[in-house]
Amino acid sequence: MVRQIARWEQIAALLREAHTGLSPVNGPSARHEPTGVVGGTLAEYEEFLSHNELELAWDALAAVAERSVAPPSTWESLAKAAELMELHEKAREARSKLFRPSVASAKALEIASADAERVYRNVERFRISLALEADGWHIEYDLKSPSCVGGGPHYVIDATTGTIVSKKYFQ
After folding, report:
1. Inter-helix orientation angle 2-20/54-67, to 10°
2. Residue 18: which of 78, 69, 89, 58 has the closest Cα?
3. Please, are residues 30 and 72 in contact by the beta-carbon 8 Å criterion?
4. In 3-state terms, what secondary structure has residue 11?
5. Average pLDDT for residues 52-80, to the nearest whole number?
């Protein structure tokens, strides 16, 4: 029994650690009223944790982390807590989030577009493709019309910092 209590305390500590990695304001839906059994709010997380409902606390905290830009440390703590609870699927789910980019695709596109518009002025003639690869966001501007000669810019945006790692201009 003592061993089980120690395990619960370790799980609770990991959940608290995961919670500290989240910013105080996790978007407008972080503290909303629940829509289902577990709505995924910080208030629910705190309530479940105070009643030693560790799996439900995990679910609520993971939902908040999913909606926010949770750092890798949050997901690592959630994965460790899930493993201790022998919730292997949830641990895999949390570990899959470890390598999620800090810079969202929309922000990467905004960064590339600002540079492309500065150089090309009008980017409406381009078809934009965006893909997350190991070295960052790849954003390519290709001419929409096949009869036109030339091309547009190609960017690699760091998925962690949002800096332009490389850019190539085609005329």
Report:
1. 10
2. 78
3. no
4. helix
5. 90
